[in-house]
Amino acid sequence: MTRDSVLITLAGQPNCGKSTVFNALTGASQHVANYPGVTVEKMAGRYNYDGLKVEVVDLPGTYSLTSYSLEERVTRGFLLAEKPSIVVNVVDAANLTRNLYLTLQLLEMEIPLVVDLNMMDVAHRRGIRIDPEKLARHLGASVVQTAIKTGRGKEALLSAISRAGRSSSAHQTMRIDYGPMEPFIREITARLISDAPEAADYPVRWLAVKIMEGDAEALKYIRGKLTNPNSFLEFAAKKRQDFESQFEELPTRYMAYRRYAHAESIGKACVVTKTGNRRPMSDKVDQVVCNRFLGPMILVGVLYLLYYLSIVQGYNLTNYTWPLLAKIRNITAALAPSPGFIEIPLLRAFSLWFVDSINALLNYIPIFFILFSLIAILEDSGYMPRMAFILDRLFSKFGLHGSSTLPMVLGGIYVGGCAVPAVMSTKGIPDERSRLATILIIPLLNCLAKVPLYILLINIYFVGHKGMAMFFISTISLLMVLPIAKILTLTVLKKKPTAPFIMEMPPYHLPTFRGVLGRAVERVRLFVRKIITIVAAVAVVIFVLLQFPGLGHERKAYYAGQKERTVSAFYSKIQGTPYAEQLQGENLMKLVLYYDEYKSKKMGVKGKEASRALNREFQERNPGFFKIVKPGRDKIAKKVNRAFKRLFKARKKLLREIRKEKIDNSFLGRVGRFLVPVTQYVGFDWKVNVALLSAFAAKESSVATLGALYDQGETGAGTLEERMHEGETGFTSLHALALMLFMVLYPPCIATAIMVKIQSGSIRWMLFSMVYPMCLGILVATLVFSGGSALGLSGTEAMVAFFGLSLGTTVLMGFVRKSPDLN
Amino acid sequence: MTLDQMKPGNECRIKRLMIHDQLGQRLLDMGVYPGLTLKVIRNAPLEDPMEVCLGGFFVSLRHDEAKYVEVSLS
Ligand SMILES: Nc1nc2c(ncn2[C@@H]2O[C@H](COP(=O)(O)OP(=O)(O)OP(=O)(O)O)[C@@H](O)[C@H]2O)c(=O)[nH]1
Ligand SMILES: [Mg+2]
Asked: Using one digit for the tens of pLDDT, what is the confidence trace for A172-231?
């Protein structure tokens, strides 16, 4: 019988190159990285070869096939349930013996196997020669050699798969000789056949072996299959006990040792190692990179470089990309219905708001691109496990994990990170409890979007101590995050499973340019697609909350009256001039827009030449208007110009007042006022409340909203700093400190919250990640504000006191023993 | 003697795994089995964890985990 479509599965130990093989076969771009445990969910793809349709599934790497860990259960469950036609067992040729330990277990499951000896290039370099024919004979499976990263051997692999896929001949099964355990296995097999003939979904010898091991899943299966399982289970338990007392070894252990012995003997027969020196380069590098003194210094250097290149330089890069985004906004502004004298059409307001919200995020793309490229380099090189190695001691004291380093750096361990990629990168943390703890604390680190508010407040209220205040705010988040992580792991996360730390330290690889670039592009694309849609949706909601219910009839009439007065004042001023005729009716609004455009364009041009060209352009477009805008020596034109400028300013002021009143009156504004009875203890008035509420969508909004609320009109002169200072006489540095700390502990933005949901796999954790920082923020801000006021502390004094308190707590929490349960 | 007492540079032979739960299984599956010779490469800069070479590959583990591996100096 020949088949024309087959399902194949890639299985193998972690970091042996399964996903690279998957990508090579299917042309996909699955995540590949040089550390174990990269693939955590199964992935499917397909290809055609020689008329054979092949569906490929990439599985997480596992060292073994017990039912102890989740990945192993997933992998084994998939193999048993889906019964793939072929398993391609990817093997790290440079570590044959340990890899064969898994191969043997796969063979025991009696699935047709194609063994792919991958990483042949590495094995060659280390002087390891493998005899593939001999290996194939020993295993009873076909063996191909590949160095798939360079593309070598792909053809051979493809044809081996298609050969195995087309032949349906029962393949020969290899047996591991379990020696003195064999009689036990035979007895169980016999009993299985008589008691449960329908258990034949699974190979019977394999089932017997698993029952002898006391494998939880196998026993569960039996319980479900037999009508009266108890006598069978008792029988099996008795057999295990007999073995244990007879040979003084647990059956599981014994069987694992036998498998290793078998793997070793195959290795001895098929492998020739020429040199003893195993990985000279990697070892030399590690002597420096993991050195007691140099190691931490290099680590700090690498992290600093990561931060400097992506956050600092990436931010500089946005100076070049921003004009592009600004152009999009201008085009939108030109296409949208044009504004009236004081009436802004809703569609216009909405489209601009929408573009602004999206632009705020798109603006980060250069940063993300650099960041993702650098992470790809770190991942490919093999430095990540070293980072975990160096910092594990420190982090494990607080319930975190060595692998929490990268997510925390990305999140902004000092200043300026972004929680979205940070939460994304927690995938690599093998310990579930630490992983959740890391996910939950990342939003409390200093992401880029929090920084503008810090800078604003520090510039107003800590003028004399700017450096100190900046240092405080940069380090305080780390000091708060560590004890919080510890408390979380001791309380809500107590029941979550932890995992042993034991981790393979892979040899270093040189990252390839194409690999790094491809990965960065792919991740940016994913980020944009996932996040932008959400942010767009939220932008709509916030827009509605800020726009409605809008102004009442009375206020609208009032503003219409104001408009009338301003306009008629203008007309009476210019009466009798030749321009009066020209500016009747709609033409006045045209002039306003003309002037607006001229002014904004003028701001964009530099140099005399360009400015002259701009003048020429506007003169050609409307010579009459241009005369008013640029009157030169003409007396009458000058007079009209003065009157017009007054009108223009008056309009701006009216628009600003309307906007402010709208926000005051909006749903969000009402909520802000509603919260005042609570927030007074924290020191926030309704304006601050509104700013903080608007920060839910994106934290940058806090400063933007404050900007709108503190707009004092007039000529628009004066920075927000000055305006806020004048506008809030009751606001002291203590208020500012409370506000900054509240911002540190601010709940994650929507984009981050969605990422938390994806990575934690549950809405409950997402909600928790939003609620607990808020409670904590109110607590801390109240402590600082009410406590500070009661003690009569200034903002600076309270800052020092709070820093001391946090430092003390952190040190103390470091000494609290973690709960001893290692399971 | 147990593995956590070994110093960098020590070579030893694994005698026994003294733990039977998940950690024991994990050690076993990572290639820590009786009869194998291993070499302690280094301790991390903060002492913990440690890195050992097992035949052809390198593994890092915490001292808390290494204390369940009984070894004899060779
Ligand atoms: N030198 C060399 N490197 C390879 C080869 N195949 C894969 N790699 C590299 O090995 C590392 C691991 O590859 P992955 O494909 O992520 O391994 P995996 O088996 O999917 O790993 P997990 O998902 O963690 O189980 C990556 O850095 C690859 O670039 C090869 O044939 N030769
Ligand atoms: Mg993978």
From this structure: 667 888 989 999 999 999 988 888 776 667 888 999 999 999 888 888 888 888 777 888
Give residue A793 CA to ligand 1 midpoint distance, Å: 58
**Which range of residues forms the domain containing residue B61?**
3-73
Q: Cα separation of A638 and A315, whole Å?
A: 44
Place of tokens 């690999």: A515
8 Å CB contact of B26 and A69: yes
Nearest-CA residue for atom 8 of ligand 1: A17
Number of domains in chain B: 1
Burial of A124 (0-12, 13-18, 19+ CB in 10 A): middle
* Of the partner residues B47, B48, B59, the one whose CB lies closest to the CB of residue A504: B59
Residue B63 contacts A, CB cutoff 8 Å: no
Give the closest residue to A799 by CA, choosing from A471, A416, A478, A441.
Answer: A471
Structure tokens at A657: 């007042």
Nearest CA in chain B to A402: B49
Does A16 contact ligand 1 (Cβ within 6 A)? Answer: yes
Q: Token pair for residue A3?
A: 């088949």
Model pTM? 0.81
Q: How many CB atoms lie within 10 A of CB A557?
A: 11
Within an 8 Å CB–CB cutoff, is residue B9 touching chain A?
A: no
pLDDT at res. A635: 80
* C-alpha pair distances (Å), A239 with each of A108, A182, A199, A224, B41: 21, 12, 20, 21, 42
Question: Tokens standing for A539?
Answer: 């932008």
Q: Tell me whether strands A503-504 and B57-61 are parallel, antiparallel or unpaired.
A: antiparallel
List, in sequence order, the alpha helices (H) in A196-313: 204-213, 216-225, 229-247, 251-270, 280-289, 294-307
CATH number reported for the structural domain that contains residue B41 in this entry = 2.30.30.90
Ligand 1 midpoint to CA A105 (Å): 22
Task: Provide the greatest CA pair distance for chain B.
Answer: 30
- Check if the beta carbon of residue A424 is closer than 8 Å to that of residue A368: no
- In chain A, the domains with their CATH numbers are 5-166 (3.40.50.300), 179-273 (1.10.287.1770), 294-451+477-490 (no CATH), 553-663 (no CATH)
Residues A304 and A312: beta-carbon distance below 8 Å: no
pLDDT of A682: 83
Quick one: average pLDDT of A806-810?
Answer: 92
- Ligand nearest to the Cα of A13, by number: 1
